[in-house]
Structures are given as structure tokens and as C-alpha cells.
Amino acid sequence: MHIIPIASGKGGVGKSLVAANLSIALAQTGRKVVLVDLDLGGSNLHVILGQMGSLKGIGTYMTNSEMTFQDIILETSYENLLFIPGEAEVPGMANLKSTQKKKIINNLLKVEADYLILDLGAGTSLDIMDFFLMSGRGLIVTSPTLTANLNAYLFLKNISFRILSNCFPSKSPGGKYLSQLKKDGHSLQRIYIPKLIEQLEKIDSENCAKYQHVIDNLRPRLILNMMEEPKDAAKASKLRHSSREYLGLDLEHLGVIYRDDVQIKALNSRLPVIKYKPGSVLSQAIFRIADKLIEEEDLDDDLLFSSDLDSSFKEAELEAETDFDSRMEYLNDLLYTENISVSDLIETVKSQQYEISQLKKENNLIKSKLVNAIKDGFVI
């Protein structure tokens, strides 16, 4: 079973949209998929799936001793896709006890499926990080904004410290060293992790080897959502550089998705976007990501080489260019039909604004060249 936790450093970057639509895309290939809403403090995945009504899920299971875990694995209207709701209405589910968390994890590991997709809450709570670490190849959804990328980096940093905490017990030499750093007033968040590992290697090599083994088998995958223009793709490379330089973690780029108002229409229609409009640029991006996951099905125990990771970022930049061209063609076609909506018109204006800004840059460059030519005494 391939376990795919999907997380984000902050809310509002489209994590649940990716989780729901990616699950359906994989199920359409004949693979058995179980989608789990683990955003236990604000579960809304059932709305994106169109699963309305009173759904008993993890909240009911944890508070009702008569229920079995199998009772909350629900059928959906999509072939090969099962769903486990989260139930945000049940009090206390946002902050699980350690025993409750272990109970959920143990039950999830017993689920029979080709893919187990976990839609996690945003942020860096211990519950979210432990669910994310159920797999070494979880997905992180972010957007091109500065805050989204900063929070994605901080999520990875907190994951690194969570692994440190797990690998260095409090009574071990390494654990005592980390505790002493805190007592001395050092903020672990400000510590350069590679240097910290060098020091821990000297005093606790055994547990340091455990830490390095976990890190070496941790290869988070990135999805850049809500893009506006091709140059946004460069933000992913900056995130990768920071992760490698300061955390000792490398990333794989799984793909890009452009912002599209079609997802709002799909949500209002209570349909996942790949069902509402499968030919849209957004839907095609989801299908492309699903294809990549399928291609990598045999790589769980054989992680990608650095050159493969480099290629994944280059490929994502090409996809950003291609998808942008497709958007422009689609919007151009709309201008010559009578069925253009207000949202389509807004999208067209946004795209034209980008083109205008590019033309302004070119004009400014030409002006500066002309000014320099006049200063040098050339006659125009």
C-alpha cells in the first residue's frame, strides 16, 4: 500500500482540493484508493467529494466503543474510491491524546488499498507531523506567495525536529545535549541543523545513525498550486535550496497547478473539478500528477537520485510554460464566443495584465537604450 499524506504549512493553498481530485484520478486507473480526512479540527473533504448528509467518521469511532474502524470506511459515488470522514463537529478531535493517535495510525495501516491518501490539517501540530511521517514520501502543497513558501519551509523544519525528538530519547547522550541547549536559552529553531548533527555525531553516534537513516529515507514531494504565471515556478527551486542547505532535506517536484475559478464552480455544483470539467488546465494538471505517482510505484524502497530530483524541477518549469500557453489559448477562444461569463472575463483581464506588464518592461528597456544612445551622441 502506498501511503500519501498531504500537508501544507498554512491553510488556503488548496490542499484538500488536491487530495480529493488526486484520489479520484488514481481510482479511475483501477487502483483501490482510500481517502482519509485527517483535518480533524476542520474537516470539509466530504463537501469537495459531494458526500453530503450526516457522515459518521473518525470522531464517532473514537467516542463510540461499539463501532469498528471498518464501520467508518464509506462507499463513494466514484468507483474504486472509499472515504473515511473526519467529523470536525466532535469536540476534542483537533487535539488527540497519544493513545488516540496511535489507535488511528494502527487502524490506518491495516486498511487494504493500493493508495491510502491522508488529507492533513494545516500547520505543525504533533498530530499532523506524526501522520505525515507515516510515509517517507508525503506531499506538501504550497503556493507562490512568500508566506506560503515560508510556512512550507517551517513545516519541513519542524518535521526535522520531530525526527530528532523521536531518534534521541531524553535519557540518551544526544537527548540530554538537546535538553541542555534549551536550558541554556538556545532556540532550536535558530540552530543550523547540519552543524547540530555534526555535534550529535560526536556524542551519540548510535542514535545519530538512526536519525540519518530516517532522513535519508525521507523524500517529501512538492506541488506548487495556485500559480498565476510561469515565473512563479522559480519559487519551488528556492524552497528546495533552503531545505537542502539548512535542513539536509531534498525535495522532489511533483507538478504545478494554475489558479482557476472553475474549482469554485465545481464546488458550488458539489462536484470535484476533474469531474466537473476534466478538460480544464487544472484537471489536466491533476491527471499528470497522478500519472507521475503511478510511474513511481516501485520507488518506495529505492528513492530517486539527485539527478532525478533536478529533472523533476526542470520538468515542472516546462509544465508551467505549457499550461500557461494552454490557458491563453482557452481564454482567447472564449473571446470569440458568446458564452463568456463574468469569471472568465476576470481571468482574461488578469492574463492581459501580465502581458501588459511584460510589454512595459520591454518598453522601459528600449527607452533606456535610446537615452544611452542619445547621450553617446548618436543621431536618431
UniProtKB/TrEMBL annotation:
Keyword field: ATP-binding, Coiled coil, Nucleotide-binding
Keyword Nucleotide-binding: yes
GO molecular function: ATP binding; ATP hydrolysis activity
One term under GO cellular component: cytosol
InterPro entries linked to this entry: P-loop_NTPase, ParA/MinD_ATPase, YlxH/NBP35
Keyword flag ATP-binding: yes
One Gene Ontology term from the biological process aspect of the record: negative regulation of cell division
Domain of life: Bacteria
Membrane-crossing segments per the record: none
UniProt feature coiled coil, ranges: 342-376
Protein name: MinD/ParA family protein
Protein's organism: Thiospirochaeta perfilievii
